[in-house]
Design goal:
mainly alpha
């Protein structure tokens, strides 16, 4: 239950950090830190779920194999979270 709630909320939290950074409410460094922290925790939870598998094939499956997820929604949630975190970091670097 908690994991599925985190999956649902993670992309929203990063988008909120992006909006806060663009609005000037959140410093670019703080927004980048928050988004990276959320993305790392998300990826770590996925790696933990695949415990015992070799690292390189697991990382490859996380990004390139949607069939390795329980549903397409989980895959697209991870991709959206990662992409939004990258967007926030790029925005912070540009600021």
């Amino acid at each position: 239950m908690v994991v599925s709630l985190f999956r649902a909320v993670s992309a929203f939290l990063i988008a909120l950090a992006l909006i806060g950074m663009q609005a000037g409410v959140l410093a670019p460094g703080d927004a980048a830190f928050a988004s990276i922290a959320i993305a790392v925790v998300y990826a770590a939870s996925l790696l933990y779920a695949r415990e015992g598998a070799p690292l390189w094939p697991t990382l490859k499956a996380l990004f390139l194999e949607p069939r390795s997820y329980a549903s397409q929604a989980h895959y697209y949630s991870f991709v959206a979270t990662t992409a939004l975190a990258g967007l926030v970091v790029l925005g912070a670097v540009a600021a």
